[in-house]
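Hi R.,

Here's the chain you asked about this morning:
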Amino acid sequence: MMLRLWWIELRLAGTLLLEVLLEPRLLFVTLYIPVLLAAMYLAGGAYVRLAVYLYCAMFLFALYRTFRTGGSKVDRDKPLVESVPQEGGWRRLWDRVAQDMRVTMPASITWVLSPLPWRHHGCDAAALRDEGNIVVPLGCIGSWTMLDAFCHVAHARVRRRPVRLLRSVVEWELHRLSTELYQAAGRGDTSRRIRLAQWVGQKLASLAATWDLLADMEADNRIAQAYGVEAVSRWIVQSQLAYHTVTDCVRTAMQTVEERGLLIPIAASCKSYQERFVAGWQEAVNADTKAAVKGETSLSTGHAPFRLLAMSNVESSRAAVFDPRLATTTLDGLEELEERVVRRELGLSNARVLTRVESGEVGSLIVLPQLREDLERNAALLEGRTWLDLPDLVANIDKLGVEYKADARYLFAPQQRAALVPQLLAAFLAFELEKSGWKVSYWFEEGLVVEIGDRRLLPGELIAGLRSGELTTAEYMSKIQPSGESGL
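And the predicted structure, written out as tokens:
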């Protein structure tokens, strides 16, 4: 694995050098001067030193012309860095990871909101990790058990760090190329120089992604020896799902903070939001893992299938048993910590008053608006339908999955879109009943809830019952409108 990583680093450096040498506007000089040098040498060496100086100067000029524009890195938000508590669950975690992995742990924890930047200049957890920090995203820990937290911290600690200078140059150049290509697309420029820039950008991005995948696999293997293949595999699936969901939840929560001064519980909100996608995500990962076995590389679930396949070849009889409680239950002062991280990433002073929102209010502030947006995107799919048509809609879920329009920010595979249809139908039922006087709410433990008088129904359960056959159409109708009632 180490040799493969070194080979990729060598290819990254070679691609950067090749870009300079093939700069179209200087290609003539690049090719002509070596020929000129050879001719001068064969002619007795006259002016060879001058030609060498000229070649070096032109090469430096080519280097400058290639990398000078658009390469400035994004000035990102600064994360919250705090010392590891001297006692409590996270101190025990720190000490146990140091013992299990036989490493020295840093004295600080780097806290961020999301595993991916939630805005253009947001904190980049991956870049912070590559600098040697143990980065903990608050949006993820709501779904973690302590064993998941062990896997995350151990993986971050033992994962190989890239060559800092090379990785910085690659990221800098990718940013420059994306800027140049965006401007060229606006001009309609398809010149040879732009085609070269496209090729270089694709090559650099592909090599960097491959390096990251191999580094993750290497670290997965190491931590599996301590915590077991099953635990690490479960954490891999969960962490990859977090990349797709937590960022969007955090973005919505931060918008609420900035606009209304309401501080939403980050860990609890992201856990609730992520649970909406768990079933569909697991199905998609299983399908992509089968596709990866067949040699397919373009997968909707990212690197998770490849890492899981690598895990299937790891020999480890260790099955770790640790504290099964959620990681949030062992983290003292979570509410205060969330506020400190939010203020840090948003750049809010202590003078700005933030009102903390209780967990029960999160549904109305975040989840319900998102469900309404989902219905609006798929209005044509449900046009003319009412709650009376729900049994028929449930019977045609697979067909609806083909036509379902997912959020454009997510590149969901067909099986993922189909898995989201039950959620769409549950929202459809809830908001249809709302028109008749039912009250709609969302709770972490139960999901969507509709209430009227002393009656309380869970649309998600009704959909599941109709789909499995445990609930007949007549029983469904009686739950919504008991005999003798009218008005719906």
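The chain has three domains: 2-67, 80-346, 360-480.

Let me know if you need anything else.
M.
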